[in-house]
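sorry for the late reply, my laptop died twice this morning and i had to redo everyting from scratch. anyway the thing you sent over, i finally got around to it. pasting the sequence first so we're on the same page, its 255 residues, then the predicted structure underneath. double check i copied it right bc i was rushing
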Amino acid sequence: MWYNPETVNIERNLVEYCLTGKNKGIPGAGAEGLKQYRQLLRNNIASILENAFPITNAVLSTEKWELLLDKFHSQHAAQTPQIWKLPLEFVNFCSENKFPEKMELPFLNDLLKFEWVEIEVHTMQNIYPEPYEKQGNIASGQFIVNPEYQITRLEFPVHIYSAEASVDHKGEYFLLTYRTPVEYEVRFMDLAPLHVYYFNKLINEQCTADKILDEVLKTSGQRLNIQELRNNLLDFITTLLKEKVLLGYKHMYHN
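ok and here's the structure:
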């Protein structure tokens, strides 16, 4: 359907009013009706974001939370037609406009990312894994990963401590978020940097535990406790299997 220029201009003025509260003239619309319509739209957006970020909403003062909502509502031109993805635009908006610095909330970006990734993993499309076997050799076998996961790098460990307390533990953290294959529950696992290295080798390079250990020993310039390193790796793999991050062993076809 084609609109004439006058109709397009009226729609643009209505959108601008809903975002900024500035009325450039909307024929046939009463001031009170426009005010209520704008408030209704803002309330809908606020409800979506409050449901998406309950921890952030609880941690921030009412004044700061409302300021974020007002800035987002008035300054951000939403790109997604899917309501459930709007919170991701809020995450990016807060980061791009440096609200953690402006509000003296250094943990804000990470807290928003932590809450968003739960939504993202929970709603992600089903990804079906390769066939796998339940039994295998943990040291020499290759593994099939549960493909419904995300690894998020964080500067503040908001997944371990309260948001305020995380400021005292600034560093490099990795959060594994995944969805269980039967219950469809979203679960979290803190990964040490060494375990991220192991995970990448196991999943992306399809290395066995034995091969990983060989590579670590060959490339490290330090004297390492081989048995301690081996136990650490095998314990990590055992945990991944138990927690359904690794589903089982890769099926090996034989001629």
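The longest strand covers residues 173-179.
thats about all i looked at so far, will dig more tmrw
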